[in-house]
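Running low. Invent one:
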Amino acid sequence: MERCLASLEDARAGFAFASGMAAEDAVLRVLRPRAPGGSRGGSPGHLIIPDDAYGGTYRLVAGLLDADFTPVDLSDRSALEAAWRPETVAVWVETPTNPMLSLVDIAAVARFARERGAVCVVDNTFATPWLQRPLSLGADVVVHSSSKYLGGHSDVIGGFVACNDPDLASAIGLVQRTAGAVPGPFDCFLVLRGVKTLSLRMARHCTNAAAVVEALCAHPAVAGVRWPGLPSHPGHDVAARQMRDYGAMVSFTVHGGAGAALAVAARTRLFTLAESLGGVESLIGHPARMSHAAVVGSPLEIDPALLRLSVGVEDAADLVADLRQALDEN
């Protein structure tokens, strides 16, 4: 599995982990960002993360690892420059981000970090190597939750790290071997099984997402839609340049705030209320109370009127009809 996934990311080295968070933890252990006087001791290092980073990443960085970090809009060069410090060790990129689907120019951020002696890490879970290959765009490290699109069937938990630099590979491999957060053989089998249909699934996911977005944009109960394929999306040009297609994650806000959003999520029939993503079935989630509950009260807090869709591979007309009936009562 490691050789297979590394080849998909155009990487020389790949490392399998028991979860996406275990993969992230391994990379951060190697980079060692921490606050001055932090619990691990040693020289402090600084990390730049997206200002809408995944809630689990924020919890790991801000809580468990006691890291010194700055959240920033990575699409804004001036904001990135303002956040930079001499002790910055890495820029952590998600693109598209979860759940706001913001886009980051990987090549530009990777070049920015490299010129200053830092590492660029890209979480490629949402896009998958079928849609974009960060290492080919200049990133140093790629991380995945293989529980999502790589596995594709919501029946496995796993993580993956890919890189080309021999020193980074050696250090990440040492963490993998020593800390023990590795997948079992059957987990690896399930991911390999999923990868066999990755291209087929991603093509259908993206086509269905486009149909869902068109319906959402036309519905009066919807206040706004975020999807990289929309020309109005602020990162659309970046997505068109560095991605094969625009992905199957869609976020939208509804009129009426949190109560209205929760009511819509409760009324869907084909979209299952669940926190995960990337499987063949369609899911709907309320990030403020689910995947991003950890960032409530922080600068990364999510609008409670926002819903996140993981658009599956079912019949597109059925998915559109389900969302319309759920929205019609608002």
